[in-house]
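Note to self: the last two entries modelled the partners one at a time, which told us nothing about the interface. This time every component goes in together.
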Amino acid sequence: MTIASERTPVLELRNITLHYGSVEALHDVSIKSYAGEVIGLVGDNGAGKSSLIKVISGVNTADSGEVIVDGVRRHWRSPHDSMAAGIETLYQDSGLAPDLSIGSNIFLGREKRRSGLLGRLGFVDQRAMEKEALEQLARVGITIPATQRTVSELSGGQRQAVAIGRAIAWAKHVIVLDEPTNHLGARQSAEVLNVIKSAREQGLSVIFISHSLPHVLEVTDRIIVLRLGRVVRDAPTSEFTVESLLGTITGLNESTGS
Amino acid sequence: MSTSVDALVTTVKSQSRVRRVVTNQQFVLFVVLIALILFFASRNSLFFRVGEFSNLFTDFSGLVLIALAETYVIVAGGIDLAVGSTAAVSGVVAAGWIQPLVNHGVNQAVILLVGTLACAVVGALAGGLSALLITAFDLVPFVATLVTYSVGAGLALVISHGAPVGYNPGAIYWSASGIGMITWLVAIVLVVAVVLGVVLHLTVYGRYNFAIGSNEFAARAAGIAVRRHLISVYVLAGVLAGLTGMFFYIRSGSGAATTGVTNSANLVAIAAVVIGGASLTGGVGRWAGTMLGAAVLTVVSDGLIFINVPPTWIQVVVGALIAVAALLQSFRRRSRRVP
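The predicted structure of the combined assembly is written out below.
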């Protein structure tokens, strides 16, 4: 056992099993993540990565198993519950509402209301949201010229910047990033990796899902490999190379033993 | 934090101000509306009489609530084909329920309030049926509301036996009273319309409506109770259709199964929304657009009659209007897209 195990994990999943109809997406999956640590979650298509993060974020509910945050057993009835517990998730390609402004997207589900009676009637304070959205993005190192612009008017890189900025700005404990470097150029990807490193410095627990193995090896402290819904390897990143990681993902170096 | 993500950010070319105004659907519609009024007035000077404007407001009021109902539904990414027959069935049911009160000479204000409540309840039930089929049985909105449309139209015929239900001359009398060209009935409808606009654009409820229509998954992942919201939207649409049923009851003094059905009010309402610049894929639409769309359709329908165009041609003109509006929207979307 490593030193890390003496600390309380900020997020722990115990024996998670999830079915979609008769298909078993996750089988007895247990993982722990700690503050100030970046975990790489890798696996082939259909290995269960997206299913696992949907269990973490409350989009899906596991058939059995436990979700434990800061030592407390939790049950998510909806994504709202996990967000309230300080867990933010960046979904692959689909986390933003393209027809809403950048500011509205940053505050989606957390709209600021006007003060007094109007606020109680549900009136939103759009001006304050646009202003604070700029500040929040700037705080995590992202500058966007005008937040009133709708997301549909942004380039792919800009959308990703807004999505990452939103997740990091709100995350208190855990941030889950599903393929954040997808569709990005080399330079933009490097910047995203820098944002991940600074999230770790802030003391967040980061769960990073990617098909880009060099990115995973560069930025993570520990790598969890999923195959066909099971955890097949959970080890410090230093124990992997691109080749051995690829072998573990595909299962090709199973017979040789690793 | 020290990291900079400037590399992720490339400046978006902003389009010229002139182009932005010209491609603004509401602005174009406003110009079209004024032009239409001037055109009809130039062809027939009687068009400018107070009486004709009063008629325009009244016809507009019969359309605007279901058009706004349709705006909420379409912005949320759905469609509601049921609003026309919901108006019919609620008018017929309410007319039957309140006729005993009319016969007993109960105060007209009480009768109309009870009738309004009854229409709202029947409308809510119709909207609830659509919502149930969509959220619990996963039917697509088009099919689910087609079911509600058929059930509503059928029940309206069954209940009314194809004849007007009830007779309330007091309601007709009241429907004509008001100040100048605005009757009390129209004034009430306009107040409801304004409230709907405020809720759509200034409140959290309206914001969720846009978010769900724009990207349902993003809305769900952001913690929005999507299912509950969609149920409320279809029920709201049903209530507004019910109120429209009551509107026509008050104007004619009876409930009729033909209300909103024979004139395909559901399609006219959708046309108003589309002309107003909303996107049928959801997430895009404006209250002002629908108001102007409904106004343009009202002025065209009434104005063509005024200059002796056969009513049969009106639908052709409406079709052309929808085509122009849709083309304008597609042009605007292309001009805004970032390469």
